[in-house]
Amino acid sequence: MNEPLAERVRPKTLDEYISQHHLVGEKGSLTHQIKKGIIPSLILWGPPGTGKTTLANIIAQESQRPFYILSAINSGVKDIREVIEKAKQAGGLFTAKNPILFIDEIHRFSKSQQDSLLGAVEKGWVTLIGATTENPSFEVIPALLSRCQVYILNAFGKDDLENLIRRAMDKDSFLKSKQIELKETEALLRLSGGDGRKLLNIFELVVNSEDSDAIVITDELVLSKVQKNTVLYDKTGEQHYDIISAFIKSIRGSDPNGAVYWLARMIEGGEDVKFIARRMLISASEDIGLANPTALVIANTTFQAVSAIGYPEARIVLSQCAIYLATSAKSNASYMAIGKAQQTVKQTGNLSVPLPLRNAPTKLMKDLGYGQEYKYAHDYQNNFVEAEFLPDELMGTTFYKPGNNQREKALSDFLKNRWKDKYEF
After folding, report:
1. Contact indicator for 153, 44 with CB cutoff of 8 Å
2. What is the DSSP pairing of strand 127-132 with strand 179-182?
3. 3-state secondary structure (DSSP) of residue 42
4. Considering only CA atoms, which of 108, 196, 109 is closest in space to residue 157?
5. Which domains does the chain have, with CATH numbers?
6. pLDDT tens by residue, 184-220
7. Where do the AAA+ ATPase domain residues begin and end (predicted)?
8. Minimal CA–CA distance to 290: which of 330, 325, 326, 253?
9. What is the model's pLDDT at position 33?
10. pTM of structure
11. Which of 187, 358, 399, 411 is 20 to 30 Å from 337 at the Cα level?
């Protein structure tokens, strides 16, 4: 019984697979493809312990294909070429049964390692399935990403996690030999951080620590048996989300001390520097915006800098940016404007583009009046002429309302001077 519980009860068929109904449920986007055995190269993106490796195994099993596994942690270009050569010999070119090459943590592959996969994927020697906890748009090279479909695995909810425990109790021979009553689950779920594998391993630890065959699982029992999390930061657990939330809220709240403290917690925990920098990029636009447009420039420069230098020096650049953002004037006007505009689009559907605003590349379009009444702003005084830029049904609708800060007050004066009472500036 050396094999961990999570491995012993790993689902082997789609029917046993828990959660991700949007992918492999009755009407899931992957279900039909798996049943038919026609699988595209794909990237599975989701939090740790949500079934990415399990799903890859099931896809190979259901489609009856040879299955090769590489881990990005300990595989180089040489390993990739060797497994591709094996795959070429195991399957025929351009057949429906070409082998599957599963790469765990593909985001850890360098550009040259990812480049070495391109030929095999493009020529159909292998069907690539990559698993990643990071946004593939940032971590997978565009040439490889364009050859793959991206499927998102959702974090497990409370019901999913409890179902994992109950399924383990029903399926595992060792657990079935015990009389286990699942009385309380809050501590188990909290300690797992939503990671199914971690949940099952904690559950097994608690069961193994009891001498009696009759075990009542309570929160008190779990907390007494599992050493409390003493690390400052667990980048795969719930603290990952709680601490980045505290960090961004400190920036939004203009507290540089809070921002630097939570930044230090992430740095000491070994958080990915690009993850931190990406969140500051978002905050620079969402929370600061036009109150200080330079914030976005600095955040973007920070992202580029820390991507180039890494730890430990990256901490200095991250600290500089965090303090700059925290001490900057704040405005969420741009964020609110696009939200309001998107909501209007959803409610009003596809309204026609007014004729003066339409492009007229052909004679027919010109004859139909496309672009005829358009007034070229640069032909008028102050490079401005009053015109209508919204569909008739939305005439006068205000999406952007300048924030209450020095720079946006100037923008408000500028816009009022141009548009008078047309909009609520």
Report:
1. yes
2. unpaired
3. strand
4. 196
5. 20-152 (3.40.50.300), 158-225 (1.10.8), 238-326 (1.20.272.10), 354-419 (1.10.3710)
6. 999 898 888 788 888 998 999 899 888 888 899 998 8
7. 38-156
8. 330
9. 85
10. 0.59
11. 358
